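Cross-check.
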Amino acid sequence: MVRKISPAAFRLCVVVAFLALAAGFAARQTASAGGEAMILPSDPAPLVVETAKGERSFTIEVASEPAQRSAGLMFRRTMADDHGMLFVFERTQPVGFWMKNTPMPLDLIFIGEDGHIAAIGRGEPQSEAVISPGAPVRFVLELKAGTAAREGIADGDAVKHPAIAAVSGAE
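Predicted model, tokenized:
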């Protein structure tokens, strides 16, 4: 027996299916707790570091929520050379990062509220050693290890991005 479905019931089924897909996508974005890499959408605005060698531009993911900051780049095995993750904190504060469950070596660039680099640290894969700038910061940028040295990124360089400008007032 074939039964016809009303247009209203069909629309309801479509909405339920869409919501189920959206919930699955959202779960994938924070899946790092289960051993999978969290992948956030790339921010449409590039992050630019003003170095002595000139401007260096990066495509970034922005981790601004606590769960996003906790997951970070854990379980990521690869990342493009011009890609990174910007961690945005609610306030300037002491921060410490570790590399547990992170198989890629990383540069950790600690950025003050004024948008200038306060310190650069190196993260070793799978290490539980705490990496800290020794002073309160507002942002941390993670890039592939060696990127800072290769691109001439140094302490004191200015970092430009709308998330930083919203706090520092600089453009």
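The helical segments are 7-29, 66-71, 147-151, 162-168. The longest helix spans residues 7-29. Passed to J.P. for a second look.
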